[in-house]
Amino acid sequence: MINTLLTIALSLFILAIILALYRIIRGPSMPDRVVALDMIGVNLISGVAVFSVVLHTHAFLEVILIVGILAFISTLALARFVERGDIVEHKHNR
Amino acid sequence: MSINTIAEYFGVVLILIGSIMAVISAIGILRLPDVYTRSHAATKSSTLAVLLSLSGTFIYFWASENFISVRLLLGITFVFLTAPVSGHLITRAAYRSNVKLADSSTEDALEELFKK
Questions:
Q1: Rounded Cα gap, residues A6 and A4, in angstroms
Q2: Residue of A nearest to B79 (CA)
Q3: Which UniProt keywords apply (chain A) (predicted)?
Q4: pTM, two decimal places
Q5: What distance in Å separates the CA atoms of residue A66 and residue B81, rounded to the nearest whole number?
Q6: For B9-20, what is each residue's pLDDT tens digit?
């Protein structure tokens, strides 16, 4: 019973990731793609949590933190890139 | 049925509700018309989905193995703090790089502020 429910939940997360992937391929503007990428990161976090419940192990719980931090930093960098055109600014005149 | 089994089922049902919320927000990101409403769907309901599923995982591990995972609590706090920040940042970047609003939207309160 528990395994069936967890399998259903895992396949629903995979379905959500596939739908967001369609938005990444199709999306008319660059910020659309970044929003969908952020959502893929969030769904990946919950997918890893469900996967560690399925396998009865604690070993994947660090992955949640790492993927969360990486998704946040990448969204930050991509937002800066969309807004200004580069990520690291060079100081010409100070 | 012992109390641990009931708590395990409670955690699994929380995970299932979270996955249904994730699919609903994915449908929202497909169907909504422009990037601002899409960011609404991707930020708020997706955060709810990840919070529900991580809380379900925490309750499951607590009930089945008496294991209180501090990393899971840290992950919940981190996602809860950073998801609105990243949503706001990407929406602001979209407005500053002149992405059009949807045709059905009626009011743009920021327009005269950015005109100068």
A1: 5
A2: A68
A3: Antiport, Cell membrane, Ion transport, Membrane, Transmembrane, Transmembrane helix, Transport
A4: 0.87
A5: 15
A6: 999 999 999 999
